[in-house]
């Protein structure tokens, strides 16, 4: 968990809470080896969903410009 906290810049208690939530949702699994706990994604599908979400978030800003434009409705123009 300390490696995750360091890499993310979040506090260890916050990382712990997030990991607990991910485990409860069935998205992450953990294995204990003495005092060390190893976390992993519960299955390959989870990694695909995360990769798709990250790709969507990283899309160029030009996509936002299109979304900000108001759609034209032909029925409103003739009224």
UniProtKB/TrEMBL annotation:
<dbReference type="GO" id="GO:0003677">
    <property type="term" value="F:DNA binding"/>
</dbReference>
<feature type="domain" description="HTH arsR-type">
    <location>
        <begin position="1"/>
        <end position="61"/>
    </location>
</feature>
<keyword id="KW-0030">Aminoacyl-tRNA synthetase</keyword>
<feature type="region of interest" description="Disordered">
    <location>
        <begin position="58"/>
        <end position="79"/>
    </location>
</feature>
<dbReference type="Pfam" id="PF01022">
    <property type="entry name" value="HTH_5"/>
</dbReference>
<dbReference type="InterPro" id="IPR011991">
    <property type="entry name" value="ArsR-like_HTH"/>
</dbReference>
<dbReference type="GO" id="GO:0004812">
    <property type="term" value="F:aminoacyl-tRNA ligase activity"/>
</dbReference>
<dbReference type="InterPro" id="IPR001845">
    <property type="entry name" value="HTH_ArsR_DNA-bd_dom"/>
</dbReference>
<dbReference type="InterPro" id="IPR036388">
    <property type="entry name" value="WH-like_DNA-bd_sf"/>
</dbReference>
<feature type="compositionally biased region" description="Basic and acidic residues">
    <location>
        <begin position="70"/>
        <end position="79"/>
    </location>
</feature>
<dbReference type="InterPro" id="IPR051011">
    <property type="entry name" value="Metal_resp_trans_reg"/>
</dbReference>
<dbReference type="InterPro" id="IPR036390">
    <property type="entry name" value="WH_DNA-bd_sf"/>
</dbReference>
<protein>
    <submittedName>
        <fullName>Transcriptional regulator in glycyl-tRNA synthetase containing cluster</fullName>
    </submittedName>
</protein>
<keyword id="KW-0238">DNA-binding</keyword>
<keyword id="KW-0804">Transcription</keyword>
<keyword id="KW-0436">Ligase</keyword>
<keyword id="KW-0805">Transcription regulation</keyword>
<dbReference type="GO" id="GO:0003700">
    <property type="term" value="F:DNA-binding transcription factor activity"/>
</dbReference>
């Amino acid at each position: 968990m300390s490696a995750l906290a360091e890499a993310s810049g979040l506090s260890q208690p916050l990382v712990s809470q997030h990991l607990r939530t991910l485990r409860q949702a069935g998205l992450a699994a953990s294995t204990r080896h003495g005092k060390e706990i190893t976390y992993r994604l519960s299955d390959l599908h989870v990694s695909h969903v995360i990769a798709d979400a990250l790709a969507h978030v990283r899309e160029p800003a030009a996509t936002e410009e299109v979304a900000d434009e108001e759609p034209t409705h032909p029925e409103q123009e003739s009224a």
